[in-house]
Every structure is written in structure tokens, then in C-alpha cells.
Amino acid sequence: MKRSRRKSSRGPRDEMRCEYQLDYRKARPNRFARLFQGGAVAVVLDPDVASVFQSPASVNALLRSVISALPERTRRQAKAG
Known about the structure:
Layout: H1 47-50, H2 56-69, H3 72-80
């Protein structure tokens, strides 16, 4: 029996498909999940900014000092919004 070719309904490669068939049997646990427990947020720094810092702790230290320098009114507005 000769196999017939299905017409490809795909558009240009830069478009997403309507549906994806995923094989969940091959899925693995997220190895980064433990890093984001406890309400952590990931932020991507531009390369020129990231080059200034040696570690995530130094970024956090600088941000905490900037937050402490903000007027109390500004800090309350940031927490609320």
C-alpha cells in the first residue's frame, strides 16, 4: 500500500502551531524549581550591568541599600502596587 503524503498545513516557521503533541513519558522534573521556591523572582540583567556584579548576593545587597535610601512613602507605594 502506497503512503500518501499529507498536505502540510503549517505556515511560516516563525508561527506557532495550533496544537503540540507532547510525550509526557519523556518529561523530567524541573531542575531549577528549587531555586525559585519561597517567592523568588528571576530578573535578567543587561550584560553591561551584570558585568559589574560578582555574585547574586552583591546584586541583592545593592538593591537593598537602594530600597533603604528611598523615602518611606515611596516604599509603601511600591509594596501596595
